[in-house]
Write a structure and sequence with these properties.
Helix content: 25-40%
Largest sheet: 9 strands, antiparallel
Number of strands: 17
Distance between the termini: 38 Å
Number of helices: 11
Number of domains: 3
Shape: globular
Strand content: 25-35%
CATH architecture of the largest domain: 2-Layer Sandwich
Bound molecules: adenosine monophosphate
Structural class: alpha+beta
CATH superfamily of the largest domain: ATP-grasp fold, B domain
Order of helices and strands: EHEEHEHHHEHEEHEEEEEHEEHHEHEE
Length: 351
Amino acid sequence: MIPTGSTIGILGGGQLGRMIAQAAQRLGYNVHVYANAADEPACLVTPFRTLGEFDDEAQLKIFADSVDVITLEWENVPVKTLEFLAELKPVHPGAAALKITQDRIAEKTFAKTHGIATPAFLQAKSLDELRNGVMKIGIPCVVKTCRMGYDGKGQAIIRDLKDIDAAWHSLKSDDAIIEGFVPFEKEISVIVARRADGMMQAYPPVENRHCNGILDETHVPAQLHTTIDAAAITAAKTLAEKLDIVGLLAVEFFVVQSNVIMNEMAPRPHNSGHWTMDFCATSQFEQLVRAICGLPLGSTAITAPCMMKNLIGDAAYDWQAYLNEPHAHLHLYGKSEARPGRKMGHVNKKS
Ligand code: AMP
């Protein structure tokens, strides 16, 4: 067990790191952030930080020497960085899980191997492979960069054979996945917490609605048939166990004809879990701290049906309006500039 009063190291300085830090501090932990710049959201909530790139071993060593356990808020931290740090301090989640979840082909292959349904998929490393792959998968299909894609970036829908060339060039990558287009009824996600001793606790499935490829709203609970709820939770727990996650695993699914089909997963807190800060017995951020420190996992019971709305770009300028709503809880991330598509904050409301 890592007791209260110890120092938790967080790799990454974004809003997820900020909210992990705030939850850890509430439980009496100190927080040390490793980030690029001192004005990143997580750096603003702790006096303890090391600034550097993820390949700067001298800075990483200073960071590791200052903390008792390390977690991350960005799943694309290089695997080499995690391996280097793991020689010095416990790192949760570990490099092996990250290696799989950083690559869409590895992630879907892993899920399939463990009996979890995914969209049909193929790899394409050239325009020719894309052309051949699209013929096999069929139209419509979705082509995505294998690595580093987020918020709908690095992907294109192919609805017609003549879209193929433009789709390939828009990716600006020579490593892509082609996926069959899933005509889903709903998009849902499940977050599972897991401790080193294998103890797990899952949050109830929630429904996610996207706008321009970015999560816009999460509705809680997802209002699915109980068998779909159970299938999603079982699949997410299987993945967390097989990946040997210590911390959190967020898994996104498509719901189609009463089946759940895995879209992607992330071994960290997830935007679709932000509602837990105000309408759940234990927030996902506190749960992560509990999991990596070997504390008892908290209840994941919903305290009231609710929804989370992201404040993206200029939408953040409406923040004062939310303060007048009796059941709205406003969270702002301390980012100074509201660029288009940038997540600036969110609001949790009773529904
Ligand atoms: P992703 O980055 O993989 O989460 O994709 C972003 C969004 O694109 C998803 O939340 C879906 O709305 C949509 N999408 C991605 N993959 C597919 C697919 N294979 N079929 C249908 N829609 C998809």
